[in-house]
Amino acid sequence: MQEKKTITLPIGKTVNPVFDGQNNLSFLKVSPNMTASLIDNNVVDEQSILEVAEVILLSKFRMKTIIPIQSVRIISSGTYCLYVKNGVKINRGRIVQPRGRQKRGG
Prior knowledge:
Layout: E1 5-10, E2 15-19, E3 25-30, H1 32-40, E4 52-58, E5 64-74, E6 80-84
Parallel strand pairs: 1-4
Antiparallel strand pairs: 2-3, 3-6, 4-5, 5-6
């Protein structure tokens, strides 16, 4: 039996959660830069990233949310999309996304 692969990812510029119409998490978009970092640091390799079963998502306030993954797909831009398992509902309110504030010049 194959071991379940779990990785930890921070929400930010390189990991973007995508929500559906009911504000439930649909999938995570992982940028090519984050993917390269995971491979360079031997967290995953080019094959095992496609076999990720679980993601621990870290928010700005160090809150951890465990997300079960159904499938992983790569799109043409080199971005990996990690799709949440069917029937699992993780509401936007459970994941605190970092928001940047821009200072107005005055």
